[in-house]
Amino acid sequence: LYIYLSLPQCVGEEIWVDSRTVYIGHKDPPPGAEANIPQRYPDNRIVSSKYTFWNFIPKNLFEQFRRIANFYFLVIFLVQLIIDTPTSPVTSGLPLFFVITVTAIKQGYEDWLRHKADCSINECPVDVVQQGKVVRTQSHKLRVGDIVVVREDETFPCDLILLSSSRHDGTCYVTTASLDGESSHKTYYAVQDTMAFRTEQEVDSLHATIECEQPQPDLYKFVGRINIYKDKEEPLGAENLLLRGATLKNTQHIYGTVAVYTGMETKMALNYQSKSQKRSAVEKSMNAFLIVYLCILISKAVINTVLKYAWQWSPDRDEPWYNHRTENERQRHMVIRAFTDFLAFMVLFNYIIPVSMYVTVEMQKFLGSYFITWDEEMFDEELGEGAQVNTSDLNEELGQVEYVFTDKTGTLTENNMEFIECCVDGNVYIPTIKVIISDIYILPNVCFEHEDLFFRALCLCHTVQVKEEETVDGIKRGIHQGRPTSFYISSSPDEVALVEGMKRLGYTYLRLKDNYMEILNKDDEIERFELLHVLNFDSVRRRMSVIVKSSSGEYLLFCKGADSSIFPRIVSGKVEQVKARVEQNAIEGLRTLCVAYRRLSESEYQEACHHLNEAKLALQDREQRLAQAYDIIERDFVLLGATAVEDRLQEKAADTIESLHKAGMKVWVLTGDKMETAAATCYASKLFRRSTQILELTKKRTEEQSLHDVLFELNRTVLRQRSISGYDRVSVGLSVDCLDFGLIIDGATLSAVLKANQERAGSGNYREIFLEICRNCSAVLCCRMAPLQKAQIVKLIKASKEHPITLAIGDGANDVSMILEAHVGIGIMGKEGRQAARNSDYAIPKFKHLKKMLLVHGHYYYIRIAELVQYFFYKNVCFIFPQFLYQFFCGFSQQPLYDTAYLTLYNISFTSLPILLYSLVEQHITMETLKRDPSLYRDIAKNSLLRWPVFLYWTCLGVFDAVIFFFGAYFLFDNTTFTSNGQMFGNWTFGTLVFTVLVFTVTLKLALDTHHWTWINHFVIWGSLLFYVIFSLLWGGIIWPFLNYQRMYYVFMQMLSSGPAWLSIILLITVSLLPDVIKKVLCRTMCPTATERAQVTYCHQLHSETKALNCLVSRLGVRCLSCSDFCFAKAINQLLLSSFYEN
């Protein structure tokens, strides 16, 4: 049997899906019922790992050889194996093997950790009812249709339908923090016909089927029905479905829960984004530069091959007397000979793209990641943990972020509400002061009717539950002076704040017992109200109501909600006074609610019951019918007053967001919370300011106007204002400060935008219009977002024409999808589990640590690796271009300019360690300056240090230096005797001279670029040069028995024994470094960047502090200090100052 239901997808696509039939307890239907058609469902296994034991090697190798560099070096290695080349295959094969092996071990270890986490989840114990008994099994063995027993504080192992509860009213309370980020308690309801079941035997005797929709990712929707044989059908909704990952609270146990979705078909699993390999912008730039250098390499090989055969066109040059060919060489076809020569030239010049660069980059990323882990400022005393790095491949991406997507609850806020004040008919009550601000009346003496009704309304209009005590981590909560005291839990934390605020003002909500709500009034008298109906809150109505019956038999309808949803339904009350107070509180960033009531006659109450029951029993369009019933009932109110609640932000959250804005980043808040709550948080965190003009793109507005009209109206608004102010987005870039517009959009409207974009591909592009609106907004708030929608928002921005770098940060499992989708994902080690931290690239204890991670660590990482990449290409152009020029003077014979040892060790030993250390410890500007001036982050935005002009400058500088090395040495050699006995230097001496100038020049170039000098810098830079000299002396000073040639014997010593050689080395080094020095001086003088200006300011400040410290030291009778001593002197500054003031 199949039915078809129209269900809106999370992505905005409405499709027709068939239903699934679940047989409770796997029992066959009775005779005469529909046939049992077996359906196959997955088991309850969760898989988040990427590899298996069998596919790890082929899959990992495939991913690694997708990198252009790895594939290129593999080809070069194979060429060296196949043909006779000037260099050994080991020079390419060994480094490549090292890189592939290290990377595979690293990725395999990370995936092994994911396997461990999956096993811990899949093997956790679960209780199942079988044949009237409770049997314990493992989570992964659950099947669709099993009857599961869940106890308090346990997590639901799969998506379940609630059949019965230990509570007499058939309800249970659940926290869904890991799903939607809300750590408050929510109420779920058992099936009406099974809620009376109390034992395993009763539950096991149930003979019924559940017919429901196929798995959908939307967390907030579920449509189905339960068919109890020999009885009737009953509709099922989202209030009956318990989702995997949620936790049972304030309920001892729930019986007879039926599994409907298991494993990767649960709503939580469907909202997970698949984990893909992330690649940084720097790596993409490296690949682009690699392609350019590959083209240069091929061009060099082609030019040399053509010129070689042009040179050998003359017979006497084709086969000179000193180099006769073999018979096989004479018979070989010219095309084959040319191709072989081409490959030989490729291998000879192949060092222009060194594999050592990729080894160094991997080491720099891995070792550099420890600086985040070791950062004491990012250590949280409360958690006892610091920042964590889950992947080091994206360190430099932290310095390129343009969009920050953040969760709200638990990320920006502590999810801790505090009641601030309430306003009744214009009179303001503050619990801590307990006075009426307007008339200065003490609260106990006030006895107006509306005041009493207002306080009773807030004590009755809620879904708060009372619990006597709770044990959390071994500490009993709710114990006061040895006596148990009650505390409140609710699906909404601000409801708890309101009830607690009323308690401080003299009206205490006691309990809900046998459907009667009890409150203790200010006269210490208990009042009982029968709870008849609850009209639950929803994001469209933005209000909730209760219908109660007082002890005198009077029917009362109490309603609270957003001012925009309450004021239009008011018929009497002091509207203007209350509205003025609400507006003032909203400006201060407080969350406000309005409270109203209405007295119902008997006939009005019966009519309301009729509307509600008719809507609740509808299987089709149940939500729309309930909304219509609520609209009929909630009208003709009398206004009582308003409340103000503060949602506490995390420490320094507002300062962090302000710094991110100054750094040129756009901040978006993506939350599953309702619009009013999220908007209040945005104001408190300074995401929205008082001057921000809010643009709404919400379901409520699109119901009043068409989506087309709303989008075009908003677009006209921002474009009109932009044209007035002369703002030009194209000229100044995507991530600069935009006009002060703030956009609010909800999940339903986002789905409509994406759906309309697909349906109207030929008549209009709503997606581009939406992105255009977002580009012109300084901040965007996306509320009522499903987890998968968060990922879709991130993907939408990633795919826009500017292709900005995105960062997503959150603390719950509902944030995992967007964390995986963004270029950089950061998890917060919050109160909502570690799913986000485990699936993220980086994990931090608090939101405030994001500021230092981006503005300091991200800045340093990008500066360091950008210099590393450019420097590596530069020093290899310097290395290989003389080899290219040398072919013009050796008849294109593929004769190496340098000795084999120099070819092998240049990138491995002589020049690799200084740049590795530079890329780990360089600080071109101090940490304090970077934190104090976030705008410096803009200097490195848009991959500014790896753009094509900068790349061409470094390449041209390398070519210039190479020309100086080669021709400088060549002209000094020409017709000149260098030794005392008149002996001319040979080709190996010439190559050694060029190589010596090369090593010293590229090392001193790095020394000139170094701003932050430590003892280890001096040791490595000067030590590398000393190592080269010592190695050359040993290599040429000893006859090595394992070598079949001794061409370098005494060459280096002979070169150093010549005075002109020393002069040549010093002169060529100076000439090579001079242009870069002049260029830097001119740029700093004529058009300095913000970073260079900050460096100058810091130097002036350092000089001033040195003079002041010298003055202080001289007064104490100590010798004066020079600027070079300041680093040491500053460390004892506090000690000296304290001694000075004491004396």
TrEMBL record:
Residues 837-1089 form the P-type ATPase C-terminal domain. Its main location: membrane. It comes from Sander lucioperca (Pike-perch). The active site is at D407 (4-aspartylphosphate intermediate). Residues 125-188 form the P-type ATPase A domain. Its EC number is 7.6.2.1. This is Phospholipid-transporting ATPase. It catalyses: a 1,2-diacyl-sn-glycero-3-phospho-L-serine(out) + ATP + H2O = a 1,2-diacyl-sn-glycero-3-phospho-L-serine(in) + ADP + phosphate + H(+); a 1,2-diacyl-sn-glycero-3-phosphoethanolamine(out) + ATP + H2O = a 1,2-diacyl-sn-glycero-3-phosphoethanolamine(in) + ADP + phosphate + H(+); ATP + H2O + phospholipidSide 1 = ADP + phosphate + phospholipidSide 2. One of its GO terms (molecular function) is magnesium ion binding. The keyword Cell membrane applies. CDD domains: P-type_ATPase_APLT_Dnf-like. It is found in: Cell membrane; Early endosome; Endoplasmic reticulum membrane; Membrane. Belongs to the cation transport ATPase (P-type) (TC 3.A.3) family. Type IV subfamily. It comes from the Eukaryota. Gene3D superfamilies: Calcium-transporting ATPase, cytoplasmic domain N, Calcium-transporting ATPase, cytoplasmic transduction domain A, HAD superfamily/HAD-like. Residues 35-92 form the P-type ATPase N-terminal domain. The chain crosses the membrane at residues 288-311, 342-361, 901-921, 951-973, 985-1007, 1019-1043, 1049-1074. Mg(2+) binds at D407, T409, D811, D815. GO terms for biological process: phospholipid translocation; positive regulation of myotube differentiation. One of its GO terms (cellular component) is endoplasmic reticulum membrane. Keywords: ATP-binding, Cell membrane, Endoplasmic reticulum, Endosome, Lipid transport, Magnesium, Membrane, Metal-binding, Nucleotide-binding, Phosphoprotein, Translocase, Transmembrane, Transmembrane helix, Transport.
